[in-house]
Design brief:
This protein is an alpha+beta fold. The protein is 27% helix and 25% strand. Strands 6-5-4-3-2-1-7 form a seven-stranded antiparallel beta sheet. Helix 1 runs parallel beside helix 2. The longest helix is centred in the first third of the chain and has 12 residues. The N terminus is likely disordered.
Length: 171
């Protein structure tokens, strides 16, 4: 599914596709917006109690990742979030790795100050149609929460980013 997102008829690099498959393995729900063969956007979300971790892909070379504030009713429009406590927009490898390295929402270092969601997270209703939804497999559904809770309990980092990639991302 992920290899269908194109920009100037280019496929996703294999490293990016591998990271996106990691998003699926982490238990995210994936929405393919538009025709499956040539989607206008991909959106992936992971629901926490008070937040939603979000990946929005509109172009192959730029991805936006975010932790969105869930309203009190717990319902977030993943295509038009209003507020975030953390967001990262940039090259796919950097944005996805930043999301993987984001700590559990209950971690003392977790971001909590809300601000308006970046426009790059918004997908218009017209771009959403048709929408195909891919739910995580039952064994994957809670994987992100489990992985981040284990890292938090161990007092360690969730970081999977190697030093050379970190230097590339901060340039």
């Amino acid at each position: 599914m992920f290899s269908a997102v194109r920009s100037d008829d280019m496929r996703l690099p294999s490293e990016v596709e591998r990271l996106l498959l990691g998003v699926v393995d982490d238990g995210f729900v994936v929405y393919c917006c538009g025709p499956k063969a040539a989607p206008s956007a991909l959106v992936a979300c992971y629901q926490w109690r008070k937040y939603v971790d979000l990946v929005t892909i509109r172009r192959v070379d730029r991805i936006t990742t975010a932790r969105v504030v869930a309203p009190q009713d717990g319902r977030v429009d993943v295509f038009a979030p209003e507020a975030v406590v953390w967001a990262y927009e940039g090259p796919p490898q950097c944005a996805l790795r930043a999301l993987f390295d984001l700590v559990h929402p209950d971690h003392p270092a977790a971001p909590v100050n809300a601000y308006p969601a970046p426009p790059s997270l918004r997908i218009s209703r017209a771009e959403q149609r048709p929408t195909t939804i891919r739910l995580p497999a039952p064994h994957q559904a809670g994987m992100r929460a489990f992985r981040l809770a284990v890292a938090m309990a161990a007092g360690g980092s969730t970081s999977t980013m190697d030093e050379s990639l970190f230097e590339e991302c901060v340039r």
